[in-house]
Amino acid sequence: MTSIGSGKPQLACSFCGKRADEVTQLVEGPGVQICDGCVELCNEAVEEARGAAQGGSDGSELPRPWELRGFLDGYVIGQDTAKRALCVAVYNHYKRVRRAAALGAAGVELAKSNILLLGPTGSGKTLLTQSLARVLDVPYVAVDATGLTEAGYVGEDVDSILSKLLHAAGNDPRKAETGIVYLDEVDKLARSPQSATGGRDVSGEGVQQALLKILEGTVVTLSSGDRGAQAVRGRGYQSREPVRIDTSGILFIAAGAFSGLEEIVTKRQSRGSMGFGGALVPEDRPDRTGAAGVTPADLVKFGLIPEFIGRFPVITALRKLDRDDLLRILTEPRDAPVKQYQALFELDGVQLEFEPEALEVIADEAIRRETGARGLRGILEESLIPTMYDIPSLRDVVRVTVTPDVVTDGAEPVFTLEEAGGARRAASGG
Question: What residues have CB less than 8 Å from 348, skipping those under 6 apart?
């Protein structure tokens, strides 16, 4: 209460504390008051909850697994097994989230199913998760697990993940609670030799322990000094309470190359096949499935703690991309590297073409570098930089054809000039 000139106490909003002369209208109730601004905030909260319940009652607006798969096929080549597992897991997760919004605590409680992706670098792990978040239109954040440390040590603690997700959700806590968190390089959290001998492992096993609660589902309070919490309060909320995020609806997708896991799997399978009539596994047989057939016990032997692995019921593997996969990736997806560079050249009025042999050389170079699909763009950039430097000044060039020696030897591509009497290409700005 605040006294004014007459000595009569002036009423104030019981929620935000604003006095009657600071608001447009103050509604009085039995022992409480609420201002028009807080009424509007309450109405927004009620409408959001009602919309979530209506939209999630039967999952009719949620893309079905085969629809998700069709969208992924437009961006990611191959990896059929991983796509199928991801689409089913994501569909089931958001069915669970929508059902919880509609029914609350009623009915059978559905367990949370986070996803663990195994596969070599450049096999499409990040692109798959990004594409799923795009089609579902949910907040998405990618976090490098190697930068996380236990609370109290130099580095980012696990709560910073939720701060980034909140920022990606436009500082809307309710929207953040339905987002996707991609934990990359999670294999680097495997128990280190120092921890086995009693040393403090603040960025390995300690981080695994710290992640357990938010992976399973808990309410995390972001501190008042957190950037995301400050942004939420800046939207007009008058409460000084810290921002709380419920992680039970957040889908966590962890991924890593898990280099060396194949040897653990092969050794286990070889031991299991010993004896009369047992099928021996050749030691020199290459693993083309990227640690397919891995078990939780294999991951424990790799260095992850059982409690951490148990938070990821869905485990799927991406296979190493072969030459045919890389050739398709160069040209087929909607955002294929070749299509991107062709679009760049078109902005200068030039048609960019690649001889089939040149594409094969690019794929072979990516295999040699062991960079997977991620390395294709780098090879193209290296090969085309001299041409992209000159093209804006070469006004008579209408077509550029990339030959194999452009990639292998740094030779100039074939330039096709406009025919005599043809329309001249306008010079680019500058």
Answer: 391, 392, 425, 428
Element (H, E) at 34: strand 33-35
pLDDT tens digits, one per residue of 38-54: 887 777 666 555 444 43
Phi first, then psi, for residue 398 (nearest 5°) are -115, -15
Is the pLDDT higher at 289 or at 75?
A: 75
The string of pLDDT tens digits covering residues 296-355 is 999 999 999 999 999 999 999 998 889 999 999 999 998 899 999 999 999 999 999 999
From start to end of 275-428, where are the E strands? 314-317, 351-354, 397-402, 414-417
pLDDT given at position 421: 43
Rounded CA separation 40/314 (Å): 42
DSSP 8-state symbol, 281: P
Domain map of the chain by residue range? 2-45, 63-317, 323-417
Rounded distance, CA 428 to CA 202, Å? 54
Domain 63-317 in CATH 3.40.50.300: yes
pTM: 0.72
Query: In CATH, what number does 323-417 get?
Result: 1.10.8.60
Inter-residue contact 80 to 72 (CB < 8 Å): no
